[in-house]
Design brief:
The structure is a homodimer of 195-residue chains. Chain A has eight helices and six strands. By secondary structure, chain A is an alpha/beta fold. In chain A, the strands form two sheets. Chain A has a four-stranded parallel sheet with strand order 4-3-5-6. A two-stranded antiparallel ribbon of chain A has the order 1-2. The radius of gyration of chain A is 21 Å and the shape is globular. Chain A starts with a helix and ends with a helix. Chains A and B meet through helix 1, helix 2, helix 3, strand 2 and helix 5 of A and helix 1, helix 2, helix 3, strand 2 and helix 5 of B.
Chain lengths: 195, 195
């Protein structure tokens, strides 16, 4: 079997994160065999999302306007700026209902192995945003992976050099965990940061 | 965050097999943040595949013509008809290089739990195809899952009732396997079908 349109679809699906050649094949066959309406809908949704979604001029999250709803919300505390790696992380923080300040969304995180440095993640825009004279505290909420830690470390240094107060999300035992199943590094952090 | 175009894209991605809400979010964010060109390409590939790909009039596999290249290949043995669940299974058999006959691709397999019966998988078209007077042997190459076995059983009965010779792919120990790691059911089949 060598059908150009089908092969093209499999190639295009493979560019999605987490999709290898087998999954791409399965998706393409499924769409063509059982869900052509879904394929048409996906094509339309892709086109529309690319056309309509852009980055908020202030915080760089996804928005359809010039500035996102969160940045324009007068009930938000403009003295707090929380830095996250992705819009998905921002969504998780929002769902937690624990934060009422504003956000800044990086273009990912520093990853030397992938050639992604501090310039590539939009650090310059963050420094400019944080220096608006209103922000009092920058909360670094990048992940606690190696890359997330490196990112937080580099940003903290640059922000502190500009006289800003910088904090980091607390590390510790996850809610609902039994201690015996928590990894030792986490327990050590939780002990060191006990309160 | 509630951005209609972004939410629409996440919804559309969730309809892909094996993609849950978290993966769909990650895909959508990745495309919009890092690969807008990939999103445009995928939209085009979807549209083109839906428009150009149809089912072969003889074997029901995907093709861009009226009849697929395999069915039109004069070097193929038209006396052998191999029945598979999906075009992906057909591709696997082709890669094995072990078969020179023709194919018939079902619309999946019988699955009572999902309400998919013998009518839904295109059995009527298979019976018509197999009764062309040329086919001498129908090889049932549906999977060896419970659903694949049920499908093979139902099709074998219907095909034999029409006087056709019906065979099934051999079960046994996979090539390259150590016996101690092979499951007991497979060993029992391999012993029973020893040659």
């Amino acid at each position: 079997m060598s059908e150009p349109a089908l092969d093209g679809l499999i190639d295009a699906l493979r560019r999605l994160p987490g999709v290898g050649v087998k999954s791409a094949q399965r998706m393409a066959f499924h769409l063509l065999q059982h869900d052509r309406e879904g394929a048409r809908r996906l094509a339309g949704a892709l086109t529309e999302a690319v056309q309509r979604t852009r980055h908020c001029a202030r915080c760089h999250t996804f928005t359809e306007g010039e500035v996102c709803a969160t940045c324009e919300d007068p009930r938000r505390n403009p003295q707090l700026l929380c830095v996250v790696e992705t819009p998905a992380d921002q969504a998780a923080l929002e769902r937690s209902g624990s934060y009422q300040g504003l956000y800044f969304v990086l273009m990912g995180r520093i990853s030397p192995l992938d050639g992604i440095g501090v310039v590539d993640i939009g650090a310059a825009a963050l420094l400019e945003r944080a220096a608006d004279g209103v922000v009092q505290e920058v909360i670094l909420a990048t992940g606690f992976s190696a890359e997330g830690e490196v990112t937080a470390h580099a940003l903290a240094a640059a922000l502190r050099a500009r006289g800003l107060k910088v904090t980091r999300l607390a590390r510790g035992v996850p809610a609902g965990s039994e201690l015996e199943y928590v990894d030792l590094g986490t327990i050590a952090y939780a002990m060191g940061d006990r309160r």
